[in-house]
Design brief:
mainly alpha, Rossmann fold, 157 residues, 2 domains, globular, 3-stranded parallel beta sheet, 9% strand, single chain
Length: 157
C-alpha cells in the first residue's frame, strides 16, 4: 500500500486472505517517495514465490503501475479514496495503464474484491483453495436466503 493511512482499506484484503489461509505480505511503499523500494519489491516478488500482487494507493495512485511495469506477476490495483477527488483520481491513475502494462483495477476502496480475485487466480492451480472458494460462494447464497427469509417474515407475518 502507498501509505499507512491506506491500512483501514487494505486490512479488508488481509482479512479475506487470512480467511482462505493464503499467506501474504503487507508493506508500505510509495511509487513516488520510495521508488527504489517499489522497484526492488516488484522485481523480486516472483523469485520469492509470490503469485499475485495487490496494490492499494490513493491520490495519484501510481503504485500498481510501477509494480506492474517491473514484475511478470498479475497486479490488482485498488484505488483508495484519500483525497479531494474522493478516489476518482486514484481510479483513473490505476485503470488508465498504457498498452502492454496491464493492471486489473478494482472499485474505489475495493480491497475485499481484490483479495477475492487473487484467491480465484491462485485457486486455478490449487484444487483445495478452489473448493474453499466454492464453499465461500455457497455460503453467500445461504446468507442471502436467510436475509430474504427475515424480510419475508417481517413483511408478511
Amino acid at each position: 500500500m502507498g501509505s499507512d493511512s491506506d491500512l483501514p482499506i487494505m486490512r479488508k484484503a488481509a482479512d479475506i486472505l487470512k480467511s482462505f489461509d493464503v499467506p501474504f505480505e503487507l508493506n508500505v511503499m510509495s511509487a513516488h517517495r520510495t521508488p527504489d523500494r517499489a522497484h526492488q519489491y516488484a522485481t523480486s516478488a516472483h523469485t520469492r514465490g509470490i503469485k499475485v500482487l495487490i496494490a492499494g494507493a490513493g491520490v495519484a495512485a501510481h503504485l500498481a503501475g510501477v509494480l506492474a511495469a517491473n514484475t511478470p506477476l498479475p497486479v490488482l490495483g485498488v484505488p483508495i479514496n484519500s483525497g479531494a477527488l474522493q478516489g476518482l483520481d486514484a481510479l483513473l491513475a490505476t485503470v488508465q495503464m498504457p498498452s502492454g502494462i496491464p493492471v486489473g483495477t478494482l472499485a474505489i476502496n475495493g480491497s475485499k474484491n481484490a483479495a477475492l480475485l487473487a484467491v480465484q487466480i491462485l485457486a486455478t492451480s490449487d484444487p483445495a483453495l478452489q473448493q474453499r472458494f466454492i464453499d465461500y460462494k455457497a455460503d453467500m447464497v445461504d446468507q442471502v436466503d436467510l436475509k430474504n427469509a427475515r424480510v419475508q417474515e417481517q413483511l408478511f407475518a
